[in-house]
């Protein structure tokens, strides 16, 4: 009897967020029916968590050990099992630190996280290891309106870049730009080390702080030395030396001996003058850096403030008169341009895990050819081109974004349940056989082409 090689309609994917202290894993299944697959890399694919659990890194000498225990726990405590009905397909792990060719080294723990090793150990077809803040960038795409606080409405553009910065343990930054696939347009995230640019003081007190920190770190001072959980402690130590008359030994003891000194500093804001000065100082510099990021990327798709520091101190960011917003917009003669950029604070702190799950889904899709229905409706399946600048190049379809590109537009219109847009802009590479055929037509004068009927069933 021949073995049934038909791919299961439900597959198991894995996401993980590996921080300095904890490792978080989740197994989830995704419907891969033809209707779902035809929609391509959705930002909100139909996930269903099968099993999820967090682990303390200090309990394991090797990364392989913690993943092995996770799978053992999953099989013992949930309905997950490796049966013919389920298939471990793709895995994406977001790790705190630099990633080089799918490999990350946790030097403080002696761990090595390597995508090839994980494939061999656990039988995944596809594994990707990415920086945790790049994963957070993809996590931005999954946000709902109720999960953000709007600081500035701006003038939103669905085809523009998106920028993300977030202060937590450190200061992470990344950006997202529209990309193209046979399914349509979607965003990809790209890494940045922008948090490590030099701190550029603007006021007398900021110059004094720079001098203090330059002596402490024996030279260069980055923005992250100020805008981060550790940065709060650095700035507190500066104010302690600058204003010794305000020193409180009891409060200082709590701060110095805390595991998370930054959290204690924030909690003492209304009881201890030096903490109040520290918080005001840090959020002003935070706003300045947010404005600098906005200038570099012009993210009319949105500037998102992520990380733990912002949502836990949201009152310091809201309102145009907050020190954060005034510093963000105060960019001299280019300030008017920044007033049109949407600025939002991310109120949830699980972007890394969300991004790893979304990437797992995309990794799976990359391994499959685009799903195109075999039969087309002759009444609606037409190829249309236009050079009309008023028609958006990427029409909203099955969750994809509009975008006012001023380019000739070519769209393959399918029945509603299989809708997909294909946008051809100069320099785009054709990625499927059906797109290649269209490209040949364009090469012989697409601008004069107005309509082509596609034969039903061709």
Can you give the helix content as a percent range?
25-40%
Distance between the termini: 34 Å
The largest beta-sheet arranges its strands as: 8-13-12-9-10-11
| CATH H-level superfamily title of the largest domain | ATPase, nucleotide binding domain
CATH architectural type of the largest domain? 2-Layer Sandwich
**In total, how many domains does the architecture comprise?**
3
Number of strands: 16
Could you tell me the CATH topology label of the largest domain.
Nucleotidyltransferase, domain 5
Shape: globular
Structural class: alpha/beta
Low-confidence stretches: 372-458
* Share of β-strand residues: 15-25%
Helix-strand sequence? EEHEHEEEHEHEEEEHHHHHEHHHEHEEHE
Please describe what this structure looks like.
It holds the Pfam family Glucokinase. This protein has 458 residues and is of the alpha/beta class. 32% of the residues lie in helices and 22% in strands. The chain is built from 14 helices and 16 strands. Strands 8-13-12-9-10-11 form a six-stranded mixed sheet, with helices on both faces. The chain has a five-stranded mixed sheet with strand order 3-2-1-4-7, with helices on both faces.
Summarize, please.
GO terms for molecular function: ATP binding; D-glucose binding; glucokinase activity. With 458 residues, the protein is an alpha/beta fold.
């Amino acid at each position: 009897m021949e073995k049934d090689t038909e791919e299961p309609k439900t597959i198991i994917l894995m996401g993980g967020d590996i921080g300095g202290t904890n490792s978080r894993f989740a197994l989830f299944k995704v419907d891969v029916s033809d209707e779902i697959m035809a929609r391509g890399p959705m930002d909100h694919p139909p996930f269903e968590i099968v099993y999820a659990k967090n682990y303390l890194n200090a309990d394991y000498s090797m990364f392989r050990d913690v993943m092995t225990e996770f799978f053992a726990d999953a099989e013992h405590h949930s309905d997950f099992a490796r049966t013919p009905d389920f298939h471990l397909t793709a895995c994406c792990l977001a790790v705190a630190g630099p990633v080089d060719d799918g490999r990350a080294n946790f030097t403080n723990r002696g761990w090595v996280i390597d995508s090839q090793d994980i494939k061999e150990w656990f039988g995944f077809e596809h594994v990707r290891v990415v920086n945790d803040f790049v994963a957070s960038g993809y996590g931005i795409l999954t946000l709902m309106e109720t999960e953000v606080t709007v600081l500035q409405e701006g003038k939103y553009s669905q085809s523009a870049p998106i920028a993300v910065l977030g202060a937590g343990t450190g200061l992470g930054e990344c950006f997202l730009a529209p990309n193209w696939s046979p399914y349509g347009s979607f965003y990809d995230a790209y890494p940045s080390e922008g948090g490590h640019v030099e701190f550029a003081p603007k006021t007398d007190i900021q110059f004094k702080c720079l001098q203090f920190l330059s002596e402490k770190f024996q030279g260069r001072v980055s923005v992250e030395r100020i805008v981060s959980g550790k940065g709060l402690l650095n700035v507190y130590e500066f104010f302690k030396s600058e204003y010794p008359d305000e020193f409180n030994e009891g409060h200082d003891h709590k701060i110095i001996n805390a595991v998370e000194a930054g959290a204690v500093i924030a909690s003492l804001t209304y009881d201890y003058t030096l903490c109040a000065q520290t918080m005001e100082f840090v959020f002003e510099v935070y706003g300045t850096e947010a404005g600098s990021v906005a200038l570099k990327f012009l993210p009319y798709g949105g500037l998102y403030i992520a990380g733990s520091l912002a949502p836990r101190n949201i009152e310091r960011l809201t309102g145009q008169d907050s020190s954060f917003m005034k510093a963000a917009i105060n960019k001299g003669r280019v300030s008017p341009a920044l007033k049109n950029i949407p600025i939002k604070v991310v109120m949830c702190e699980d972007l890394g895990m969300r991004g790893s799950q979304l990437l797992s889904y995309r990794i799976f899709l990359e391994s499959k050819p685009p799903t195109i229905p075999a039969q087309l409706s002759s009444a609606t399946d037409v190829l249309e081109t236009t050079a009309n600048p008023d028609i958006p190049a990427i029409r909203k379809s099955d969750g994809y974004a509009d975008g006012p590109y001023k380019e000739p537009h070519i769209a393959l219109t399918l029945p509603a349940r299989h809708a997909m847009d294909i946008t051809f802009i100069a320099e785009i590479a054709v990625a499927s056989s059906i797109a290649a055929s269209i490209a040949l037509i364009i090469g012989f004068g697409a601008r004069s082409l107005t309509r082509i009927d596609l034969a039903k069933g061709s």
